[in-house]
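Hi all, long-time lurker, first post. I run a small reading group and we've been trying to get comfortable going from sequence to structure in the token notation. Rather than ask abstract questions, I figured I'd post a concrete chain and ask someone more experienced to write out its structure so we can walk through it together at our next meeting. Sequence below, copied exactly:
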Amino acid sequence: MKKITFFLFLLPAILVAQRTTILKGVVKNKDKEPVENVYVAFDETGTITDENGNYTLRIPVKKEIVLKFSHLSYQVLYHSITAKNRNAIRFSPVLLLETEKLDEIIVKDRRKEAQGITKIDPLKANIVIGANAGVENILMTLPGVNNNNELSTQYNVRGGNFDENLVYVNGIEVYRPFLIRSGQQEGLSFINPKMVQNINFSAGGFQAKYGDKLSSVLDIEYRKPKETATNIDFSLLGGSATFESLFLDDKLTLITSLRYRDNSLFVNSKQIETNFRPKFTDLQSFVTYQFSEKFSLNYLSNFSLNNYNYTPISRRTRFGTIANPLELIVFYNGREEDNYLTLFNAISADLEINEKLALRGTISSYNTQEEEHYDISASYNLGEVDANIGSENFGDVEFSQGIGSQLNHARNDLDALISNAQIRGTYKRKKQQWDFGVKYQNEDIRERIREWETIDSLGFAIRPPNHDTNNQPYIPFEGPITPFQNIREDNKVTINRISGFMQLNERIFWKNNEIWYHLGIRAQNWTVSSMNSASKNQTIISPRAQLAIKPDWKKDMLFRLSGGWYSQPPSYRELKNYNGKININVKAQKSIHFVAGMDYSFNLWERPFKLTTELYFKNLSDVNAYSVDNVRIRYRADNVTTGYAQGFDLRLNGEFVPGSESWVSLGYLKTEENIANRGAISRPSDQRLKFAILFQDYVPNLPNLKAYLNLVYNTGVPGGAPAYADVYQFQSRLRDYKRADLGISYVFSDANKQYGSGWLSKFKELTVGLELFNMFDIQNSITNTWVRDVYSKNQFGIPNFMTGRVLNLKVSMKL
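-- Answer (accepted) --
Happy to help. Here is the structure in token form:
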């Protein structure tokens, strides 16, 4: 019976194999150099050459076919061939450089689509407008990706938080600062858009070769220069200078970039009057040396220095209703001084053992030194505004119903060193590819927390939550003045992690249907040790699978199904509770994840379009519940919560305007949690509806005048509550987030428009443009400031508005 079952299982593959054979070869140019990314195809079947020019294609037996070899830089080559039997055959053509202008060639690589990965054009990272222009700015326009803070590069994906996203640069995981509280403190993202070659993003259901997180993967690859060039950008928000070149007979390549950012233009558009001069500086370099065709070394480094000096002066905010308008006036004393120093270094070696086996070894180190020091006192007056239109004092404050002050103090210091070593490999055997890897990581974090807040209302100190209240002046209070919030901790935590994965990838044919499958498993063992406590050792196993099929239909459609058991071992932030204490017993958060998707490619108005649809469901267990204040996440540091996330994402992208890709995104999400069996409530990331448009256009009679529109609408999330509030008693939502950014630029020179003389002949590229941020001047808020009315004993949440309308001038050039 087992033999019959085995035969029936192999029968489809045997039948296919009898009608087809393997064609393979190496595509080279006239200099005998391999050509990468050549599209090799016949009928509707095709493949892409790898970095060594190799290709493999299954073709029919005893049937004449016409092969097409196409590449943007080479002349198209056609070749007729007939396989007489099932023996493998070879054909290695030589391509000639295209000396004339090529028509556009659309190359379809189905591998990323089959893996559920969105591939983004890196050029858009440099031209799409946004308050934080770059790769993350493009992600905000995708369905399932949300962020209500334009000054932050962090993002939520399908109900997860900022800490649930994996970010890789050249296969190395990168991290975000630990002590960041608000988006205006963040500065520059680690990812430098001027150095990027490939951008791949998965919103869920990703493969086992990626790490142990619950939400998403952003996989960035920096490019190796192919020419000597200098890119210079500058605007009212800062600038960058990027140099790239080749040395030593093109064996050594170097790309290095210096960036500077100043967000004072944005901050000065807010309602708080400040003296604010931030300095965000970043220097990155990527160096490669090719010893031979089979061995190379790579070096990636990053130095980042962010100085955030903030001196608030005053604030005036009106809120409430038309019938009962209120106004808050605040006067500040003191200042905040934050410093963030980040050092990152990584060395990797690529070794091709033979045609089947390739290895990469990497050693990296990430060090962040962060200081958060502030003493800020605020005196406020909460008053009722005269709403009587006929009154002589219309619009003035006629009655003060709340007067008070508060003092915030912090001397927080953190020093974290994360070091790791890993080996990853790829083994190819016939049609199968095995990916495997093992990694060791050591995390050494030391933090000193000194943070307190005192609150005063009409001269009487407010007692901390869950303490006896004082009823002054009727009953004298003789106890000590206790801070409303007070955290004093010294933490030293060491985490050692050993992780590994193995994954099988294969592309097969069933009849004329194309099928991909990926089966993998991850495992991680980690040990946490802290001061004055015994170490804790835990292990997780994470199986994952993906299946995709492209039916042999007239309509170009592809279907995907993926999922698995995803686990997220706790990071240092997740081990620390609201009071700054470390709980080494925190377990990994777990999610059973299911994703079903479909890609439909079609022509509309004789132009290419693609509709992508995905349905997803996450069953969450051992959840570490948290609260969010701006971009600061504070965890409960326990695992007493369960939850779920479900929704769907739609994205239609294509050439709405000929020659320019744009897209429209729509997402729906519902995510809830149950903390300690108290009942289901919305999670902090429960952003129900997302709508976004990324639109590019140009003037038909003046094609060098281009316009870019970035429009985002997100419904409000639960939040804005005081940090000490019980989430079960406070479930109101923040207002909806609405934002539209417009960019207009004129291209004086680019690859298609060069000058042989005059001042423009000095530029390979030159673009000048204007950027209008928040063009409709919509008041968005991400948090509330809470003030007290001593008479009614009520607290009022006054929205902290984000940036207003801002105009920026930008110049970009390539020399």
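A couple of things your group might point at:
The longest strand covers residues 397-429.
Residues 1-18, 100-107 have pLDDT under 50 and may be disordered.
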